[in-house]
Amino acid sequence: MTNDEPNPRNEEIRLDSWKAIAAHLKRDVRTVRRWEKLEGLPVHRHLHQAQSTVYAYPSEINAWSATRQPRREEVAAWRRPIPALAFAAVLMLSLLLVADAPYSTYAAAAQRVPGQSGMTSRRVWTLPQDGTFDGTISADGRFLSYPDTATDNLVVHEFATGRDRLITNAAGNGDYAFRSLISRNGKQVAYSWYRGDTGRGELRVASLEGTGLPQSQLLFANEDVTDVKAFDWSPDGNWIAVQLERKDRTGQIGLISVRDGSLRVLKSAEWRYIFELYFSPDGQYLAFDLPVGDNQQRDVFILAVDGSGEIPAAMGPTQDSMMGWSPDGKHLLFASERGGTVGLWAVTIADGRPQGPPELIKSDITPHSQGLSASGSLYYGVLLGGRDIHVASVDLETGKLVGELVRPVQSFVGSNAQPDWSPDGKYLAYISNRRQTSIDRVLAIQFVETGQVREFRPKLSNFQRLRWAPDGRSLLFQGTDRKGRQGAYRIDAQTGEVRAIAVSEPGGGLSWPQSSQDGRKVYYRKGAPDSMSLVERDLASGNEREIIRRNSLGAPSLSSDGRFIATTYNDGATKSSVVLLIPVSGGEPRELLRVSQPQSLDQFVAWMPDGRAVLVNKSLNESGDQRELWLVPTAGGQPRKIDIGAAWFGGPIKVHPDGRQITFMAGENNSKELWVLENFLPALKAAK
Amino acid sequence: MRRLLFGTLLVSASLFAGAQGESRRADIPLGLDLYMPVPEDNRFTAEKVALGKRLFFDPVLSRDRSLACASCHVPSRAFTDGRAVAIGVFGRQGTRSAPTLVNRGYGAAFFWDGRMPTLEQQVLQPIQNPDEMDMTLDEALARLRDHPDYSEQFRAAFGAEASVEGLARALAAYLRTILSGDAPVDRYMNGDREALSAQARQGLNIFRGKGNCTACHVGPTFTDERFHNTGVAWRDGQWLDPGRYAVSGGAADRGAFKTPTLRQIARTAPYMHDGSLASLADVVEFYDRGGNSNPHIDSEVRVLRLSDDEKKALAGFLLEALSGDLREGQLR
């Protein structure tokens, strides 16, 4: 039987609202909505209704939660590549600095930047766990605005007193604050506010004078604009530079009048978005970064605010992103990978034009600018921590770890996830998400022997769930194009060329594509949880064949001989999770393992190279914070536990072709710190 | 060779023939970007735009003095001619439809096949095309230099006598002032929810959603300025027009044409590069069936399965929403 009709009694109890989904995850509505938007939380919609409603399945939510790589867990070290000793030193320093401490301690921890007279960087503050780098420093350097994702509110933090002032009062109805900026005179804060009832963002302004909760004023809202991100106040305080996202998902750069909320659209950018945008100190120009060309690398541009001209300020084959202007307007600051690491660079500007080549200021920095103070200090966010890709060498006979657990990727540590080995074991592909507050995903392929990394930025708004094709020349993955359509894609491992294999209809839910050995067929999961199926697609004809349908299926994993698909299945009727072995050609699926609540199985199943067993991640409790890896024989025999030496692990598990190494996600949560770089402008002037 | 010569001429012009008059800006209507990419060596001046406008409407640039640019780009037809394909001097018939000139200042490629990268280069081509105005540039210059008024206007605009580069710059500057915006769709997107009828609003949703029109007709100008094969040139198993392939030589560009703007579309029938579709209803039907299937058809073109109601709404949106203010020659 290949078409297993769903039995309504077997169906899970559906979570039928944002509130129910939020309660299930023990988070607020705003957070889960954000997770849906930015991190692919599996939420479904009744598309036939005029006012669409949402629902979700606990099994899917749990599986997502178990494998989620929180966006806050970003980069511990932004060097690329980092020699092992240097990495250890950075980690040691990070550990020394990570504890919250009074200001004097921060000063004591200041680092003199080698080679630059007087230039120092120091940690200013550690953000709360639920704070994000989506605000700005005040011109006097005394305050930082940031959104608190735990409460959905905008907060302004005062460094001297350590006091947090609440600027908004989210009612728990799905509204939340995100991008914010303090006016140059320090008297107001502008912020983007997402409204749960309309599903759109709007721009608001609140006064920072007085005490207590300030009154907020709605400045801009438009039914055709789904998102409005505030980036900078004009120096005269009359305009706020914004990026709009239209209903068709295209982006625009514009100015909103503080006086009357009117909009001036300066530039439309199709489906491209900026990371950062700043007014020049004289108010005549905007500088911003934008992807260019097919490789999606960003360059920095200067646009006259009267629309009279635009010129590139920093161009090149590597990623450049805007960091700010020097207070005198003579230097434009940007983060760039052009020096081999992510460094801070400056280019001299006169009359809105770059003068001469850019100059390196600091060879390593994170690209999370929080703005410059009036005195010329650059504030930036740093994320420290260690959840990343790990590799365990194991003796599968004894189930014991052999040697140390290692991290194979030592660049952009904390941002890497979803590893997969090439069929010959020479390459490790993974996804690196390099920003906290917007999507900047890189598909990376590391040559295991040398550590050399090849990187691609596919022209998609999002992508995930990498799998090598059996010929080792390409990878398949699930993605969403910039127009919002989900599908299966193939990327050439040499050239980075991306082609769509199948694009799903709205609500089609196509996921986990995987190629057959001969490359003629692709297998994927399709549909909503209440009618989910595993499908075989013939690439020549485009015809699909349904292999199995169940109400809750995990990620399909094809055996190397192509005869079976292993996956997990949540049986709501018995409140248990099952590993299923499904014959591709048809026939009754076979249960390999069943566990009952509170235990559950992740949706990821990994085949051993010889096809005699699969690996599956078992959660021992409902929260999923206690996990075990189990080896399950496919031809009978007792499953047994495998020790991989990690307190927590998750995500797709992949086995090396040698059958002895296993890769997965592991490590502790990261922390977020605000750092400041000081006295670098005098050095810049001296160099002139 | 001609491009190289023209490039040399432009460089020379920038050295010897500085623009006269105060630098101005185009008067940009609601809905278009305030930033228009104007070449630094061809900034707007009132003198230059006035000269370009006069040249645009003057048949002096055609061999038999019968045709001006405006003969095929008629202002009342949103700068098209209402014909399937253009008619040149001596009744010579071209192979492609005269495209509208609205908002070309935002353009990135010119002609249906994009063979010219700038307006300054584009405007000289019809003058020299035997099937259009059939002149050499030397002949055109001689006529302009013999004309006392033109000599004066060229001096006012460029401080020099009539030249090829001056001719190109003046025409291009004028073309950049042909702008269409402030249409119902612009007012709607700017917050006036009553600017579109209920049917047009439904049409807009289809335009952005099921119809997949925004895959190519995107942004304020409703064009991505790229080349797509929808199969219009594919008939009975062969190409009637190579399209972009003639420029790029890439097999995937066979039968691909530049996405035309949809601004003023209610006034620019017949449609497509060959004027083969008489009405917007025909255009909607064409795309609903997935264009003309061919070996290189664009992946964004596929069967839509729109209902009759949806087709009417989409055509209604195109007719009602996109044809607003049309201005030319206005500076500020």
Give a written overview of the molecule:
The complex is a heterodimer of chains A (688) and B (332). By secondary structure, chain A is mostly beta strands. Chain A folds into three domains: 60 residues, Arc Repressor Mutant, subunit A (Orthogonal Bundle), CATH 1.10.10; 189 residues, no CATH class; 279 residues, Neuraminidase, CATH 2.120.10. Chain A contains six helices and 50 strands. In chain A, strands 3-4-50-25-24 form a five-stranded antiparallel sheet. With 332 residues, chain B is mainly alpha-helical. Chain B folds into two domains: 179 residues, Cytochrome Bc1 Complex, Chain D, domain 2 (Orthogonal Bundle), CATH 1.10.760.10; 146 residues, Cytochrome c-like domain (Cytochrome Bc1 Complex, Chain D, domain 2, Orthogonal Bundle), CATH 1.10.760.10. Helix content of chain B is 35%, strand content 4%. Chain B has 13 helices and six strands. Chain B has a two-stranded antiparallel sheet with strand order 1-6. Chain B has a two-stranded antiparallel sheet with strand order 2-5. Chain B has a two-stranded antiparallel sheet with strand order 3-4. In chain B, strand 3 and strand 4 form a beta hairpin. In chain B, helix 2 runs antiparallel to helix 7, helix 10 crosses helix 13 and helix 12 packs across helix 13. The longest helix of chain B has 15 residues. Chain B is globular, with a radius of gyration of 20 Å. Chains A and B meet through strand 15 of A and loops of B.
